[in-house]
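Working notes for the structural subgroup meeting. M.R. asked for a predicted model of this chain before we commit to crystallization trials. I am recording the input and output together here so anyone reviewing the notebook later can reproduce the run.

Input as submitted:
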Amino acid sequence: MSHHYSGPNVSFPRGDARLDFTDLFAFPKPGEPGKSILIMNVHPSLGVNPPGPTTAEPFAPAALYEIRIDTDGDAVADIAYQVRFTSAKGGQTAALRRLEAGQAAGTGEAGQVIVERAPVSMGRETQVTEAGDYRFFAGWRSDPFFFDEGALNNFQWTGRDFFGDKDICGIALEMPNAALGAKEVRLWARIAIRADDGRWVQAERGARASQTPFLTGDQNEAYRAAEPADDARFIAAFAHSLEHLGGFSPDEARRVAGTLLPDLLPYDPTRPASYPLNGRKLTDDAADAFVAVVTNGKVTGDGIGPHGDLLAEFPYLGPPHTDRSAMEAGLATAGRAGHAR
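Returned structure, recorded in token form:
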């Protein structure tokens, strides 16, 4: 299920939908190849375990949402773009910061402010904030991920797209390629929250689609809290799942697991985006790529294609299926029971 429902047993991390990272996209800006588009999606509008709609409040004010960039190949962040949200009676606003070097590699609120008090979109209208060479958007959008609902039933395809009528909360950033820090980089997303003792701790992270289905129990939590530089310790767990799901031999399972880790998305903005080798477009079929790997080529696709509601301009994500703009006045109290602990 892409990276949706990445907590144990298709639940949300720490029981909070707003902390659930779903997808990461990176592609050259259409018609302007000197710029790139980075999109981090979170917060599915519908839960599976437990089932039902999630809170209308888009983002957790107690969290930091980050797109992290490794520029030198060591799987450690050299640059990060960090977003923190504030809830008030009139809705949510966002602050965007850029972190470099030690601040980028660390955990906590820091960096150079690029955007302040950017409005968060609750309805179909996109509220875009411009700051120099940057453009920024955050808010409810149509979920661009597409996968047959049979993914929840041992790949027994039904012809129905589970995500076709679902929403997510998107964070979209347009920037000059020079701001990425190198010609070819590696990207991932993460969400950090404050622990009871006041420290910032990592609650969620990911880059490629559909990594967490390989992990259960304590391994799931450990993986979400880990850094990509330490991902070699999860090869055995990935290999075990590949043996079980795809019938791989032990040696081949370990080899394939090694191609999936560390969990980073390579991106060279001078080349066309094509998942999983270079970035990821909103129309790339990440589900087919996952199914082909996990079944050892026995299943090559689910027959579901990209959604038709994508926009031709920034932020490119389609309008949400549910207009939540009428709910803005209640955001100060909405979802309070589900706030991160």
